[in-house]
Write a structure and sequence with these properties.
about 500 residues; TIM Barrel; Immunoglobulin-like; 3 domains; 8-stranded parallel beta sheet; about 35% strand
Amino acid sequence: MGWASWNHFFCDYNEQTIRDQADALVSSGMRDLGYRYVIIQECIALERDAGGNLIPEARRFPHGMPALASYIHARGLKAGIYTDVGKYTCYAKPKYQGSFGHEDQDAATFASWGMDLVEMDYCNRPEGHTGREIYERMSEAIRKTGRPMLFYLCSWGNERPWEWAKGVAQVWRTERDISYSKNAVDWNLIVKSFESNARHAVFNAPNGWNDPDMLEIGSSGLTDVEQQTHFNMWAISASPLWSGADLTRMDSVAREIYTNREAIAVDQDPLGEQATKVREDVSGLQVWSKHLGSKTSGLDAVLLVNLTSETAALNVSWADLGLVGAARVRDLWKHQDLGSFPDGYQAQVPPHGSVLLKVSGDFSWSKASVYEAEWPGNIRAGKAQLFLCGECGSGYGMVLHGGGAGEESSLRFTHIEVSQPARYKLEVAYVGNGVSDNTVQLQVNSDKPKDLLLPQYMYGVAETSIDLAKGSNTIAVKYSGKGVVSIDQLRLRR
């Protein structure tokens, strides 16, 4: 959470601009709600010195970058800096220095300046080099500085960073810029970024976040209703909340949106789950949901969003959410408990408007709790590899290479939380096992592993019973046989 300079100012800023925005984060109350990062984007250094060190532009930063970072830190905030995978950054005239070939040097420079975040853009990628290669070099360079600096990998979705960036960066962009105009945005680009980002929801996890780009609340081009929907979309997506507006000129509507504690809590929920669409009976009338706390908590954030040009009734049923019985509903913008409803909830939603709800009920164990193998919060060991899988639940699976001779690959599913100790039915969904039977070993927490047979089907489900403790559990799938085993997901039932 924080603020970034590009969307409103492009390169028409200086160090006083940055100071003013840092002060506004404090005076508006945004800092105390979690908006901590102040990211200085683009137009940093025109030149390097004889030793190859970056020289910040003197007219823009007359007191130097360490002084600016200190100013930011003195206000209880964190400082972010910008660079690029190329020799030069995206800005065309004049050209500013990128980090290609200077990754170690620039990371050390950023650390010496007191930076807490490094954003690396994707312009001017050198021929013969992938962005992944350069991002991995910068990631290692940041690690070697010894200074904790969050790495923001901004490839605009190129090279599919959601598949490999966990462990390289903490944030990666999934789409192109939300706007190419200074201080202006188009509603349709907001929707495009939201829906595009949602395609990769399974790869969102703590310490590795999909980013659909900056928030445009406070910029021109959106109505008040659209601004609130924009924030709701980002909040239910567990997206980074970077404001791209001029915070010194916020009106009361923008301030109210940025400082809605209950909407922020949805975004910052510790499970880190990104919403998925659960219903769209009529084109443009969408229902999105995400679990809060854990997959079996019975707590869900729900977004009813109307993308059409007419007011419409939107419905969410508790069956859509995997709940059983009546459930309680809270409106997170009215800050009001609406009561208990037996089967679902309906609201009238204006054009481009939305309703953000918190629903509290009882999880239905008959539907099962699903844990995808490719979720990056799982722990991979040995030769466990991600692969594209059209037959799999979310389009991906994990292949475990055996090889015999004591070699083992494993996948440990984490954050499997249950409210009470009990015996549960576990279903292991797998693919590509059409040649012969295979046996994997299941280990629940630190219990003794037990064998589970995966019969020779192209797509199959093997079942067993397991005992889980109250609270957080882990389930490991291990394979040491010949060949490979491909895992799609785990399904848990009472």
